[in-house]
Design brief:
Shape: elongated
Strand order of the largest sheet: 1-2-3
Strand content: 25-35%
Number of strands: 3
Oligomer: single chain
Order of helices and strands: HHHHEEE
């Protein structure tokens, strides 16, 4: 789970094993609005009082993502078409994983 982009309910689920999930999610959301976390050490420092909870959940969280989805919808008159594409991005390399036309 990317702590910089995950919605609140996903953050809470990721920190369920460590305890204080709702408080941790609130604090992450508040702080990432000011400045995203660059690495896990930044998260540990910013949420020092939740250090034990973060350590317990560390294998489930990250500060970056390599997998993204893009949704595109086009409308012309009454016709509407949508597609979702999943990509894996590693530095400058982009690989299409899947594409679904809706």
């Amino acid at each position: 789970v990317n702590v910089n982009s995950a919605p609140r309910h996903v953050l809470e689920a990721a920190f369920t094993f460590g305890g204080d999930a709702d408080k941790i999610a609130d604090e992450i959301i508040r702080q990432r609005r000011i400045k995203p976390f660059k690495e896990m050490e930044d998260l540990r420092k910013a949420l020092l009082k939740y250090g034990d909870s973060i350590r317990k959940c560390e294998k489930y969280i990250t500060t970056y993502s390599r997998c993204f989805t893009i949704r595109v919808t086009a409308t012309v008159g009454a016709a509407k078409s949508s597609a979702i594409i999943a990509i894996n991005k590693d530095k400058k390399n982009v690989e299409r994983i899947a594409m679904i036309n809706l």
